[in-house]
Amino acid sequence: MMYRTMNEYLAGVFPGRVIKIAVNAGLGCPNRDGSIGHEGCIYCNNLSFNPAYAASDSSGSITAQIEKGIHFNSRKGDCYGYLAYFQSYTNTYGPTDKLIALYEAALNFPGVKGLVIATRPDCIKPELADWFEQKFGRKAPLGHPHLLVEIGIESTSDHTLELINRHHTYQCAVDCINDLNERGIDIGAHLILGLPGENEQDYMTHAERISALPIKTVKLHQLQVVKGTKLAQMYQSDPLQIKLFTAKEYADVVSRFIKTARKDIFYDRFVSEAPSSMLIAPAWGIKPQAFNLMIK
Predict the structure, then answer these.
(1) pTM of this prediction?
(2) Distance, CA of 41 to CA of 263 (rounded, Å)
């Protein structure tokens, strides 16, 4: 199947190949610290997607993590530059001046051409959005660094969002995305397919709804049961209440999702790879590149 890839998106922004370097800024989450909740999303254990070099650095240094990440990725050959990927937890959550200092530290590292910031739709304060607009968006000077904000939508169903303990509505995501777009910021959307209670019609509804939004990229993940989560407790108490995809079933769903969604969307990835030491199910044993070949 033909679809637009993340590499194609990046090629439209930069004159050469860029590599994402994941960093852990040590930020929290309002769904864990009691601001809006304590238990977090039922599927979430951030340790399951932190690369080793992005683990909390003893110095707390973003630049040290970037340096390690560049060294880690040096085997991939020469490149035009790097994107610092603020991945763990909610990367717009905290005092605005602290956040800006973290972003600026990454941008000041040699070779860093921009940022990718993953966050929740309810955690971008107006003053931070203003800074994004002036630094990266429609009020930024020529030659400004690039920014892609990844918004964790997860589902377009409010019923599902409540079930998975997100503590925000789909309309919250819509409002956040429209506001960032008006400011000239590129936006990515993150969705999980296979959440409890959802079916194929729900997945196609997700594709239709996000296609109506001004997003550039989409990152899809299959539902995984990871140790240390509420979902793991649910699965272990009654596995039948959590329907997990086989690799073929999920490839078929992704294929239909792509056919339903807007054709100019760029796809960042389709699968998540939790470490085997943390993954309970499903254990496919398939690398992302091999999975991509299953999409018809």
Answers:
(1) 0.93
(2) 30
Residue 26, number of CB atoms within 10 A of its CB: 13
The answer to whether 17 and 80 have CB atoms below 8 angstroms apart is yes
Question: For residue range 171-192, what is the model confidence (pLDDT) as tens digits?
Answer: 999 999 999 999 999 999 999 9
Cα angle: 71, vertex 104, 79; to 5 degrees: 35
Q: How far apart are the first and last CA of the chain?
A: 5
d(CA 168, CA 150): 16
How many structural domains is the chain composed of? Answer: 1
Q: What is the CATH number of the domain that holds 13?
A: 3.20.20.70
For residue 219, give the H/E element and its range.
strand 217-222
Rounded-to-integer distance, Cα 104 and Cα 189, Å: 24
**Domain that includes residue 203, residue range:** 4-292
Q: Based on the number of CB atoms within 10 Å of its own CB, is 22 exposed (0-12), middle (13-18) or buried (19 or more)?
A: buried
